[in-house]
Amino acid sequence: MDQHDLGDAATRHTPVLLQRCLDLLAPALAADGSVMVDSTLGMGGHTEGVLRAFPHVRVVGIDRDPQALALAGRRLAPFGDRFTGVHAVYDEIGEVLDGLGIDHVQGVLMDLGVSSLQLDERERGFSYAHDAPLDMRMDASRGQTAADVVNGYDERDLARVLRVYGEERFAARIARSVVRAREKAPLTRTGELVDLVRASIPAATRKTGGHPAKRTFQALRIEVNGELEVLERALPASVEALAVGGRIVVEAYHSLEDRLVKRTLAAGATSSAPPDLPVEPETHAPYLRLVTRGAEEADEAELARNPRAQSVRLRAAERIRPTPDHLRGPQPGRRAA
Ligand SMILES: C[S@@+](CC[C@H](N)C(=O)[O-])C[C@H]1O[C@@H](n2cnc3c(N)ncnc32)[C@H](O)[C@@H]1O
């Protein structure tokens, strides 16, 4: 954190679609005593917006990155006990709320992916623009690193990660070069990986489509942090955390993330009754109502202010009744909304 002061970090990151998030959450957060979970606290930009816009609301901010929590905690200190920061992975939302003695919440906000703080902290290895150790863990205290993935996965698995999570056309070629290079010595630096990727991509394609290592870095980051597996568990757990009338707003930046969001929200907004039943039993009625039509994207004005909004897909839904028992997975310790 020594490279940055707080003011710098707070202004460096403009929260994506902040006003739209506030508008979507407003009906759910209208009552006194409302609680919102910001599952991706980051530098606290969205949370600060919520705390300012809704002076009676309390926010529980979750992040798996201890640095982000420390920074956001300092930024949000003026709000006193209206803000509580918790170090956790966001699929632990149920346990986090249990630990705070909170039954259900009126809002959940998820702004997925990495923060500009993480990209800017050169030593963490998220950025292809700076040579650094191959790490890429959002929580640097545990779990596998990018070096473990590039040196430990077999060629096929490596190619699959690059192709699926990075949508990298040259995944097989890059994986082959990585395997050849590591036979001589394990890869340890992001710079070595960038050079290998660059050399694996045909010269003609190198000129188009942004930095040649962008997709490889994205793919490794998703794999290192288990981002899709965690999100797949976190979405239903977040819906379960919502009280009736509560709303969930999710901003995704990757098509696979957005697909999971779309699927979870659509499942809740669809009747689970068999199609041949003449009358829909109450127990099979939808428990969510979609409050965005499809995925919303950033408009020109937002894009001009905030380049990070480029690939955002925002979806939101409101809980309209408890999840029927036959659709509830095991939720240790949690009661129905
Ligand atoms: C895009 S940033 C959020 C920025 C924030 N909305 C703001 O306005 O400052 C995403 C944050 O979510 C955190 N994060 C990503 N995946 C997570 C997970 N599975 N559990 C908890 N935090 C996660 C990252 O560490 C990062 O700080």
From TrEMBL:
Q: Which residues bind S-adenosyl-L-methionine?
A: G44, G45, H46, D63, Y90, D111, Q118
Question: Which GO cellular component terms are attached?
Answer: cytoplasm
Which Gene Ontology molecular function entries are recorded, alphabetically?
rRNA (cytosine-N4-)-methyltransferase activity
Keyword annotations from UniProtKB, A to Z: Cytoplasm, Methyltransferase, rRNA processing, S-adenosyl-L-methionine, Transferase
Query: Where along the chain is composition biased (Basic and acidic residues)?
Result: 315-328
The answer on whether this UniProt entry bears the keyword Transferase reads yes
Keyword rRNA processing among UniProt keywords: yes
- Which is an annotated Pfam family here? Methyltransf_5
InterPro entries the UniProt entry points to: RsmH (IPR002903), SAM-dep_MeTrfase_MraW_recog (IPR023397), SAM-dependent_MTases_sf (IPR029063)
What's the catalysed reaction?
Answer: cytidine(1402) in 16S rRNA + S-adenosyl-L-methionine = N(4)-methylcytidine(1402) in 16S rRNA + S-adenosyl-L-homocysteine + H(+)
Q: What is its EC number?
A: 2.1.1.199
Top EC category = transferase
Family annotation (Gene3D superfamilies): Putative methyltransferase TM0872, insert domain, Vaccinia Virus protein VP39
Any single GO BP term: rRNA base methylation
Q: Which HAMAP family match?
A: 16SrRNA_methyltr_H (MF_01007)
PANTHER family associated with the record: 12S RRNA N4-METHYLCYTIDINE METHYLTRANSFERASE, S-ADENOSYL-METHYLTRANSFERASE MRAW
Q: Which family does it belong to?
A: Belongs to the methyltransferase superfamily. RsmH family.
The entry's protein name is Ribosomal RNA small subunit methyltransferase H
Source organism of the structure? Cellulomonas fimi (strain ATCC 484 / DSM 20113 / JCM 1341 / CCUG 24087 / LMG 16345 / NBRC 15513 / NCIMB 8980 / NCTC 7547 / NRS-133)
